[in-house]
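Protein folds are increasingly written down as discrete tokens. With that in mind, we are printing a sequence and the tokens encoding its fold.
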Amino acid sequence: MKKYFVDRIEEDILVCEDERRNQKRFSLAALNFVPRPGDALLFAGDGKLVPDEEATRKRKRIVEELQKKLFKD
């Protein structure tokens, strides 16, 4: 399955990046969940996007650790 990361939401369009930083746009109307910037998504075999909650948590932990290193006193 192809993995995407939510970059931003523009009105009714979801702008994502894949692991090579290529952008792809998806219709928000076609989703049955509410995505947020930074979320990891999988492009399932049936052509639908599904949330990848474990990958999202992992990415958030990595970002938090980087912020701590960057802003530590």
